[in-house]
Specification:
CATH architecture of the largest domain: 3-Layer(aba) Sandwich
Cofactor: FAD
Radius of gyration: 20 Å
CATH superfamily of the largest domain: Nucleotide-binding domain of ferredoxin-NADP reductase (FNR) module
Protein name: Oxidoreductase
Pfam families: Fer2 (PF00111)
Strand content: 25-35%
CATH class of the largest domain: Alpha Beta
CATH topology of the largest domain: Rossmann fold
Domain FAD-binding FR-type: 1-103
Structural class: alpha/beta
Oligomer: single chain
Number of strands: 19
Organism: Amycolatopsis azurea DSM 43854
Largest sheet: 7 strands, antiparallel
Number of helices: 6
Order of helices and strands: EEEEEHEEEHEHEHEHEEEHEEEEE
């Protein structure tokens, strides 16, 4: 997938740790690829570090995209470098990809964001408002000062759909979520993004009402997996080629070592770039990008392995 060069035209310091970057094509032409709400893109930063960021602007904006970057205290060069970017600088941006999107078959949509998890849900709120959808956006943050887009959310056209929960202690989140759940039905779809523990609470409480398969989750962090018990497996492609994957090495790495081209990005089981079809065998799923339904026929090659001794896969 070929990256395109974008120029930074506006920077907003949302909080002491979060800034938003508005970008336009280098040639100032309209966007060639329109995206659906909930999409993310690869961004090649100034230090050459590749990271994924959700598109948080209005999807119907034909001229620019918006990303939000939180500076992490243990940054390995990604977020820290992005906080040094200035107006006029250029960045390489990949084509939009969706693992999270607005479900068509729902009478109501509930968006539940925790901290920086507001980013993909903001674009979904824009889309739902534009199409006249019934929705509400719940936003949890430690304080208003630490909440990105706080000012924006008070003046946008759907401000009356926004429910801020700023300064609510973590141990009180379940009670707030139960209040939200009391108004939902099995025809409601729930979308959540934020820290893993926060999303787990959302899924547990709201999932009791709408159903676990109607809670859509967007992860920013890789899963913590114990690999000490890994054993060698055999991976075959639908073309007939077979490869031995030793313990301690990913399927993706072995395929690349043997000249097989597989699209990749995060290599942490988050972005979904390397997801491929499973034709035979039992995958050991270790990703944070596929839904339960997706896992019935697909797997992320960068992190997942197999419970069976052999897998047959189809590269997308």
């Amino acid at each position: 997938m070929t990256n395109a060069v974008f120029r930074v035209v506006e920077i907003t310091e949302e909080t002491p740790e979060i800034r938003t970057l508005r970008l336009v094509r280098q040639d100032d032409e309209p966007l060639r690829v329109r995206y659906r709400a909930g999409a993310h893109v690869d961004v090649l930063g100034p230090t050459g570090v590749l990271r994924q960021y959700s598109l948080c602007g209005a999807p119907d904006d034909p001229n620019s995209i918006l990303i939000a970057v939180k500076r992490e205290p243990d940054s390995r060069g990604g977020s820290a470098a992005m906080h040094q970017v200035s107006v006029g600088d250029e960045l390489e941006i990949g084509a939009p990809r969706n693992l999270l999107g607005v479900a068509a078959e729902a009478d109501r949509h509930v968006l539940v964001a925790g901290g920086i998890g507001i980013t993909p849900l903001l674009s979904m709120a824009y889309e739902l408002f534009a199409r006249g959808g019934e929705f509400e956006l719940h936003y949890f943050a430690r304080s208003r000062e630490q909440a990105a887009f706080a000012d924006l959310l008070e003046r946008v056209g759907f401000a009356d759909r926004v429910r801020p929960h700023f300064g609510v202690p973590r141990d009180e989140h379940p009670g707030v979520l139960r209040t939200i759940a009391a108004r939902l039905t099995s025809a409601t779809r729930v979308y959540t993004c934020g820290p893993d523990g926060f999303m787990g609470q959302v899924a547990a409480v709201l999932g009791e009402v709408v159903g676990a398969d109607r809670v859509h989750v967007e992860h920013f962090e890789a899963a913590d997996v114990d690999t000490s018990g890994d054993r060698p497996i055999t991976v075959a492609l639908d073309t007939g080629e077979e490869f031995e994957v030793p313990a301690g090495k990913s399927i993706l790495a072995v395929l690349e070592d043997n000249g097989v081209e597989v699209f990749k990005s995060c290599q942490e089981g988050i972005c979904g770039s390397c997801v491929s079809g499973v034709l035979d065998g039992v995958p050991d799923h270790r990703d944070n990008c596929l839904t339960a339904a997706d896992r019935e026929s697909q797997m992320a090659l960068c992190v997942s392995r197999a419970f069976s001794e052999r897998l047959v896969i189809e590269l997308y």
